[in-house]
From TrEMBL:
Protein's name in the database: Dephospho-CoA kinase
EC number(s) per entry: 2.7.1.24
GO cellular component, one term: cytoplasm
Residues forming coiled coils: none
Pfam families the record matches: CoaE
Pathway the protein acts in: Cofactor biosynthesis; coenzyme A biosynthesis; CoA from (R)-pantothenate: step 5/5
Family of the protein in this entry: Belongs to the CoaE family.
Family annotation (InterPro entries): Depp_CoAkinase, P-loop_NTPase
Residues at which ATP binds: 14-19
PANTHER family: BIFUNCTIONAL COENZYME A SYNTHASE-RELATED, DEPHOSPHO-COA KINASE-RELATED
The keyword Acyltransferase is assigned to this record: no
GO molecular-function terms, A-Z: ATP binding; dephospho-CoA kinase activity
Keyword annotations from UniProtKB, A to Z: ATP-binding, Coenzyme A biosynthesis, Cytoplasm, Kinase, Nucleotide-binding, Transferase
Length: 200
């Protein structure tokens, strides 16, 4: 159990993790987004780029010196071993940066937004509670298609790399249902925010 009360927020692609995280931030929680940390590490001349280029070759950088995401995505979908090699570089860096940010956080409690919290295994031991943002799979698909301009089969391929909805829900201490309207989220966030403050 971490020394400070920490919530691990997760959910499948298109479930609305960022939206929910923003609502908790408005109520005073410190949000640390591991996706943002990963983007900074792999951005132009990011801290992970020398290791990524040494491992995968200079062609994995775009003209700005950032990781060529489309090229890397295509490689890791095609070669599972490449995905493991990339994760071996990124995951320790993401973990260290996340824990450092959590130590510096000034909010009433810390919320770590970790898309692959359930898949990673080790993050579950680093948080006090796991909060899953849930919505029906057809809603996920429609949201991601609209947001990212991807075809349905591309969205479903991404979803297939994540744990099934039932497995994610089984790992949850708390669940927010985001299958409906945005207005339905606030009461759920308020209830959990009140609960989390009781642990402080």
């Amino acid at each position: 159990m971490p020394a400070r009360f920490t919530v691990g927020l997760t959910g499948g692609i298109g479930s609305g993790k960022s939206l929910v995280a923003n609502l908790f931030a408005e109520r005073g929680a410190s949000i640390i987004d591991t996706d943002q940390i990963a983007h900074s590490l792999t951005g132009p001349h990011g801290a992970a780029m020398p290791d990524i280029l040494a491992e995968f070759g200079q062609h994995m950088a775009d003209s700005r010196g950032a990781m060529d995401r489309a090229r890397m995505r295509e490689l890791v979908f095609r070669e599972p071993a490449a995905k493991r090699r990339l994760e071996a570089i990124l995951h320790p860096m993401i973990r260290d940066a996340t824990l450092a940010a959590a130590a510096d956080a000034t909010g009433c409690y810390v919320m770590l937004a970790i898309p692959l919290l359930v898949e990673s295994g080790s993050w579950k031991e680093r948080v006090s509670r796991v909060l899953v943002i849930d919505c029906p799979e057809p809603v996920q698909v429609a949201r991601v298609m609209a947001r990212n301009g991807l075809a349905e089969e591309q969205v479903r391929a991404i979803m297939a790399t994540q744990v099934p909805r039932a497995v994610r829900l089984a790992a949850a201490d708390d669940v927010i249902d985001n299958g409906g309207s945005i207005e339905a989220l606030a009461p759920q966030v308020d209830r959990l925010h009140d609960l989390y403050q009781q642990y402080l």
